[in-house]
């Protein structure tokens, strides 16, 4: 069969100054299969797909689409060849409707006017065929993240794509939405579309992919059918060593109450009430996990706790002392550490060097600062210690944080926060976008803090993470805690139900 | 030594240098198009600027205010603020120095520092208004600085007219000699050019600029805010008060610059019909100097030499003085479009096989 492969990439090499992102990569994707591309962050999988989508030009190698050797000079060429990419961060115009977004740049015209009728008919056809149901007249702002992703998929299909690249598509979805996405992907493949799935989540690969190609440090490690392998084997191939999935932890030894939240209310940026009388306690020596669908007040809760947002009423007590509405610095000095959700936006000053970032919370205090002057010898000495202790991979402490990989950036933040010896450590999505090795490291550190008698408040959108790490799980829904669960006695279904307000019938609307 | 050489050829140094060269070359092309001789033009420009001691001294005089305003703009830039208002802060500093210089009687060792302190305070406060409005009301600094420039211009004229006016003249009375920054010795050395001690103050402030930015807690905070206000806020830095503090220091640099013009060059304050233009040129200086202390001094030297030498170009080669503004604009254009120059440098390096 001459056209057995939809995509063939042969001997692809791409070098950037100082790194080889892709080194002699061979990839063969069969028509109509779901082909997973597995690798840690920085392994080179996104580079490879950017080459396929025409965003980069390879230094060496050949690309064949349906057996034809092609040169993909830019994304337009890729689209013409029937390649579509669903980016991790959606490329949608928020105030526009679903319909307008789908046809943007490819509007069917009648004279100088856009023919919405023609577009609607075509979109309706596509939605029915692939089970991608959306309301074309709602604006992007009004619809859920899962819906937005469908719009992205429809966009590529509308442009005639028959090879779809999904870049980490589940990172932003709830468990139920992930289920729905998987069904859609299966349907697409059954209808003859070829799907390339970039991911580092093994569970998803095991659940949906037909074949998997593993990339490590810019090279292909292996390519094999999913039914012939296990998650453990894949993880080992991806990281290059054996990885433990089960998080080893001792029984929690909860002590005194560190954090008490009493009837807390707060508003979000748009002035809507985000917290509606939330009460919660976290004790020393335990990890309390907060589960919830994004947008149910978790972000506002964390911001109020860390002093970045004002509470409108209620009380927050740290070891009995009321701290609500104090400044971020006062709260940090009350021994609260915080690993922020968005490490590049909140956690680091990327243009500062590693050493400077490691003292971002205490640069103003001795020994780092005396009489208004910074003591860089102390700062860099401190940094050298933490770099060793946390195995932060950086050329030296004077390298800008921007130059580090995501996992190492996160290690800088964790090192900094833990080094301040907090009583309460707040970790929000601490492993988002990290690879298996880094995730393992962060998890171990969190448990280590717990075992040292610290109180740990964990907020994550990854249910597995919540289930594996927490000693107690608090489920948040519409600004309140709607249930406290014991992770040993619950499961994803129970949590999922509470997360969606407990009314199964309404799930479609609220998701 | 090797470190120094490496730095000399690093991209961040090369970009302004190459930009300057491209600016000069394109300027030459324009001259050729107008049937002028660019070699003669540039030759006479530099002859004018460096040809004799008098002109050399005057060139330094021309450079001095650019250092002050360049530092002002660069400092604010480091906190992520675009200070278009160095012009207004410069004027407020000048008029404050004129007030102290004219109205106060004091021995020189008090009079000079007092006048300088008054100008620093005036420029600083004028700048902090901008910082305050940004912090408290979220007003963008570009809007407020532009508006405050006009207010400064007319407020200064009003003060000169009502409190300091020399009868029958469109300027203030002379300031007391005890408040002069001029130095007969220095002037003598440069064949009676109006060079003054202000240049030393400018260099001292450049050192201060470096020191504050890189060695102090305050500098750490304001650089952090400049790079990432979100992370700074989370780290407990008071972002709003940092805006105010930065704008105070930024305005202080410009204000002292204004004072030096009054105390060193003219010894009076004129009623200005238009902006003197030092503040706006400060933006170019900061841009060329990439917001570093050394860069600002070098940028000021470049702009100072070009503007002062321009008249020589007119006499020597008949090239209209205005053309130098085209050259300066080209230089700024290429520095601002750093990416373009970067690409050029990379191409060149690749061709020559230089290892990165």
Automatic annotation (TrEMBL), chain A:
<dbReference type="Pfam" id="PF00005">
    <property type="entry name" value="ABC_tran"/>
</dbReference>
<dbReference type="InterPro" id="IPR003593">
    <property type="entry name" value="AAA+_ATPase"/>
</dbReference>
<protein>
    <submittedName>
        <fullName>Galactose/methyl galactoside ABC superfamily ATP binding cassette transporter, ABC protein mglA</fullName>
    </submittedName>
</protein>
<keyword id="KW-0067">ATP-binding</keyword>
<dbReference type="InterPro" id="IPR003439">
    <property type="entry name" value="ABC_transporter-like_ATP-bd"/>
</dbReference>
<feature type="domain" description="ABC transporter">
    <location>
        <begin position="259"/>
        <end position="503"/>
    </location>
</feature>
<dbReference type="InterPro" id="IPR027417">
    <property type="entry name" value="P-loop_NTPase"/>
</dbReference>
<feature type="domain" description="ABC transporter">
    <location>
        <begin position="7"/>
        <end position="242"/>
    </location>
</feature>
<dbReference type="InterPro" id="IPR017871">
    <property type="entry name" value="ABC_transporter-like_CS"/>
</dbReference>
<keyword id="KW-0547">Nucleotide-binding</keyword>
<dbReference type="InterPro" id="IPR050107">
    <property type="entry name" value="ABC_carbohydrate_import_ATPase"/>
</dbReference>
UniProtKB/TrEMBL annotation, chain B:
<dbReference type="InterPro" id="IPR001851">
    <property type="entry name" value="ABC_transp_permease"/>
</dbReference>
<dbReference type="Pfam" id="PF02653">
    <property type="entry name" value="BPD_transp_2"/>
</dbReference>
<keyword id="KW-0472">Membrane</keyword>
<feature type="transmembrane region" description="Helical">
    <location>
        <begin position="90"/>
        <end position="110"/>
    </location>
</feature>
<feature type="transmembrane region" description="Helical">
    <location>
        <begin position="247"/>
        <end position="267"/>
    </location>
</feature>
<feature type="transmembrane region" description="Helical">
    <location>
        <begin position="63"/>
        <end position="83"/>
    </location>
</feature>
<feature type="transmembrane region" description="Helical">
    <location>
        <begin position="116"/>
        <end position="135"/>
    </location>
</feature>
<keyword id="KW-0812">Transmembrane</keyword>
<feature type="transmembrane region" description="Helical">
    <location>
        <begin position="323"/>
        <end position="345"/>
    </location>
</feature>
<feature type="transmembrane region" description="Helical">
    <location>
        <begin position="273"/>
        <end position="289"/>
    </location>
</feature>
<feature type="transmembrane region" description="Helical">
    <location>
        <begin position="296"/>
        <end position="317"/>
    </location>
</feature>
<feature type="transmembrane region" description="Helical">
    <location>
        <begin position="142"/>
        <end position="160"/>
    </location>
</feature>
<feature type="transmembrane region" description="Helical">
    <location>
        <begin position="195"/>
        <end position="213"/>
    </location>
</feature>
<keyword id="KW-1003">Cell membrane</keyword>
<keyword id="KW-1133">Transmembrane helix</keyword>
<protein>
    <submittedName>
        <fullName>ABC transporter permease protein yufP</fullName>
    </submittedName>
</protein>
<feature type="transmembrane region" description="Helical">
    <location>
        <begin position="12"/>
        <end position="36"/>
    </location>
</feature>
């Amino acid at each position: 069969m001459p056209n057995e492969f939809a995509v063939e990439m042969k001997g692809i090499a791409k070098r950037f100054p100082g790194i080889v992102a892709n080194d002699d990569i061979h990839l063969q994707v069969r028509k109509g299969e779901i082909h997973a591309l597995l690798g840690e962050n920085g392994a080179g999988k996104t580079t490879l797909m950017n080459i396929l989508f025409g965003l980069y030009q390879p230094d060496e190698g050949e690309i064949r689409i349906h057996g034809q050797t092609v040169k993909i000079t830019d994304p337009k060429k890729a689209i013409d060849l029937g390649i579509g990419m669903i980016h991790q961060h959606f490329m949608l115009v928020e105030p526009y409707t679903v319909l307008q977004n789908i046809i943007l740049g490819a509007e069917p015209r009648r004279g100088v006017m856009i023919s919405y009728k023609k577009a609607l008919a075509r979109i309706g056809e596509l939605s029915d065929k692939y089970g991608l149901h959306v309301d074309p007249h709602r604006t992007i702002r009004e619809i859920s993240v899962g819906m937005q992703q469908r719009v992205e998929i429809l966009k590529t299909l509308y442009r005639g794509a028959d090879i779809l690249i999904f870049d980490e598509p589940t990172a932003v979805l709830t468990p139920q939405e992930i289920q729905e996405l998987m069904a859609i992907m299966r349907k697409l493949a059954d209808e003859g579309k070829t799907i390339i799935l970039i991911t580092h989540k093994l569970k998803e690969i095991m659940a949906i992919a037909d074949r998997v190609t593993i990339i490590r440090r810019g090279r292909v490690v292996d390519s094999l059918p999913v039914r012939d392998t296990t998650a453990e084997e894949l993880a080992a191939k991806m990281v290059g060593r054996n990885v433990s999935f089960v998080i080893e932890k001792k029984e929690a030894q909860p002590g005194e109450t560190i954090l008490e939240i009493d009837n807390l209310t707060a508003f979000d940026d748009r002035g809507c009430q985000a917290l509606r009388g939330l009460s919660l306690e976290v004790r020393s020596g335990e990890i309390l996990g907060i589960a919830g669908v994004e947008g149910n007040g978790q972000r506002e809760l964390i911001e109020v706790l860390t002093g970045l947002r004002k509470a409108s009423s209620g009380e927050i007590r740290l070891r009995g002392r009321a701290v609500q509405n104090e400044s971020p610095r006062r709260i940090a000095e009350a021994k609260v550490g915080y690993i922020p959700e968005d490490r590049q936006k909140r956690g680091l000053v990327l243009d500062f060097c590693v050493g400077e970032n490691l003292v971002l919370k205490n640069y103003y205090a001795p020994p780092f600062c005396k009489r208004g002057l910074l003591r860089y010898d102390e700062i860099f000495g401190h940094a050298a210690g933490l770099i060793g202790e946390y195995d932060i991979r950086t050329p030296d402490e004077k390298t800008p944080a921007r130059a580090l990989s995501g996992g190492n950036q996160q290690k800088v933040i964790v090192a900094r926060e833990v080094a301040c010896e907090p009583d309460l450590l707040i970790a929000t999505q601490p492993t988002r976008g990290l690879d298996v090795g880094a995730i393992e490291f962060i998890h171990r550190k969190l448990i280590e803090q717990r075992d040292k008698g610290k109180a740990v408040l964990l907020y994550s959108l990854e249910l597995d993470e919540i289930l594996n790490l927490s000693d107690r799980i608090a489920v948040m829904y519409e600004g309140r805690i709607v249930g406290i669960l014991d992770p040993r006695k619950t499961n994803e279904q129970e949590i999922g139900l509470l997360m969606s307000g407990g009314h199964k019938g309404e799930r479609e609307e609220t998701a | 030594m090797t470190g120094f050489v490496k730095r000399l050829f690093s991209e961040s140094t090369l970009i302004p240098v190459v930009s300057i060269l491209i600016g000069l070359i394109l300027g030459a092309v324009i001259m050729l198009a107008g049937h002028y001789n660019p070699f003669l033009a540039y030759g006479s420009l530099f002859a004018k600027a460096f040809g004799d001691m008098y002109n050399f001294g005057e060139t330094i005089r021309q450079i001095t205010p650019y250092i002050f305003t360049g530092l002002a703009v660069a400092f604010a830039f480091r906190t992520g603020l675009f200070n278009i208002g160095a012009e207004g802060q410069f004027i407020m500093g000048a008029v404050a120095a004129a007030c102290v210089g004219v109205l106060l009687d004091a021995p020189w060792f008090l009079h000079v520092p007092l006048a300088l302190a008054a100008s620093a305070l005036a420029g600083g406060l004028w700048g902090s208004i901008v910082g305050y409005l940004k912090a408290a009301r979220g007003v963008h600094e570009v809007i407020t600085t532009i508006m405050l420039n006009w207010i400064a211009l007319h407020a200064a004229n009003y003060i000169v007219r009502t409190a300091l006016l020399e009868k029958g003249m469109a300027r203030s009375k002379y300031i007391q000699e005890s408040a002069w920054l001029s130095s007969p010795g220095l002037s003598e050395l440069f064949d009676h050019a109006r060079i003054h001690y202000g240049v030393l103050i400018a260099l001292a402030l450049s050192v201060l600029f470096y020191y504050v930015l890189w060695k102090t807690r305050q500098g750490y905070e304001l650089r952090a805010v400049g790079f990432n206000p979100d992370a700074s806020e989370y780290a407990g830095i008071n972002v709003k008060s940092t805006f105010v503090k930065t704008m105070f220091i930024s305005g202080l640099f410009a204000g002292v610059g204004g004072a030096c013009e009054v105390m060193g060059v003219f010894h009076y304050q004129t009623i200005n019909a238009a902006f003197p233009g030092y503040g706006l040129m400060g933006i170019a200086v900061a841009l060329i100097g990439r917001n570093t202390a050394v860069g600002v001094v070098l940028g000021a030297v470049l702009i100072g030499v070009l503007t002062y030498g321009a008249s020589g170009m007119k006499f020597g080669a008949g090239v209209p003085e205005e053309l130098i503004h085209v050259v300066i604009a080209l230089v700024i254009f290429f520095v601002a479009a750093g990416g373009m120059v970067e690409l050029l440098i990379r191409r060149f390096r690749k061709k020559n096989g230089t290892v990165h």
